[in-house]
Design brief:
Distance between the termini: 72 Å
Structural class: mainly alpha
Number of domains: 2
């Protein structure tokens, strides 16, 4: 049987782990600002930003094309009369 103090310690340990995971994202964003001053990393950050923008546009257009393709399959059987 687990006593009450041990359970509260476990709960606080879990909470501290979650807070640490959340704070990692802010630290990483801050670290990118410092790495931006180095020539190689600055160029790589710009290239990665552009690649992410272009891939988002690609997948959005792909989603539109797939939606139109599926719509044609759903609309096709209503015009066939046997």
């Amino acid at each position: 049987m687990i006593d009450n103090s041990r359970m509260s310690f476990s709960l606080f340990s879990l909470r501290s782990y979650v807070y640490t995971l959340i704070s990692v994202f802010t630290v990483d964003c801050r670290q990118l600002l410092y790495l931006d001053s180095i020539r190689f990393f600055g160029t790589m950050i710009i290239v990665l930003k552009e690649m992410l923008k272009e891939s988002a546009v690609f997948f959005l257009l792909l989603l539109v094309i797939v939606a139109g393709f599926l719509q044609s399959f759903f609309g096709y059987p209503q015009y066939i009369h046997f």
